[in-house]
Amino acid sequence: MKAIKYLSILALSLFTMTSCMNDFDEPDFKEPPFGNNEIGEANMTIAELKAKYASTISASGVKEVTEDIIIEGVVVADDATGNVYKQFIINDETGAIIIGVNDVGLYAMVPVGQRVRIDCKGLHVGGYGKMAQVGGLYEGKIGRMAKSVYREHVRLVGEPSMVQPELVPEVIDDTYFTNENKENLAKFVRLENVEITEANGTELWAPEELAYNNVVERHIKMGKTNLVLRMSTYADFANEAIPDGKLNINGVLTRYNDYWQFVISSTGDIQQIAE
Fold this sequence. Notes:
- The protein is an alpha+beta fold.
- It folds into 2 domains: 46-165, CATH 2.40.50; 169-272, CATH 2.40.50.140.
- It is 15% helix and 34% strand.
- The chain has helices at residues 2-22, 46-52, 54-58, 147-153, and strands at residues 62-64, 70-77, 87-91, 96-100, 115-119, 124-128, 131-138, 141-143, 154-157, 170-172, 187-196, 215-222, 225-232, 247-256, 259-263, 270-272.
- It is globular and about 50 Å long.
């Protein structure tokens, strides 16, 4: 009889514990756990933001955003391989801009294909070598925003998806390099049937002995233009051989003052053309 009594008490205790556990609220997974989910709808395009601060950007100046401005875009380049460093780049249907953050591993939350909203109020907009950027203030110039600030000013929208119009690169050739197009950079583009000048089958992407400030400049031959290809020694493929021959390359077109530059996120952006 004692055994039956103890078993009854044990069963009742387990039932009570299970009931209590079931009383807890189910976690709400509808909203992403990262960022600021209070950020509302976008009220300005990237092109409109850049136009509003055009004089500041072109003078490589910086200005704090004091109005309620929210932009939205899709991440087209992230820092997963380290070749893009402490920043990610977003495009919308009107333009593109760099988002500078003083942190690494940003791709864990904002990988390529993630749609984001950026609450610009309280952040800074400026030009780094006339290249438009949203970030923080650094020694009186445009720099990267702090990690804590970033988390309060970004909202993830939906799940990452590689099937978005912003991820279809615009195919360009050497006729694209005009002063007019310098105002619409950080665009995701595709270069077709090009060659990397330094490629010889053994030359490495970014050996440290060739670096200046952790950057090695390579060059893409496009018709009569040699486009600067910026490679970082932080890239996890820095010591791999540059592919030779004809290539198709996806990447982001940028500038430093009056010099055109090109950046790739990974070697997955490169397609060798069979001869």
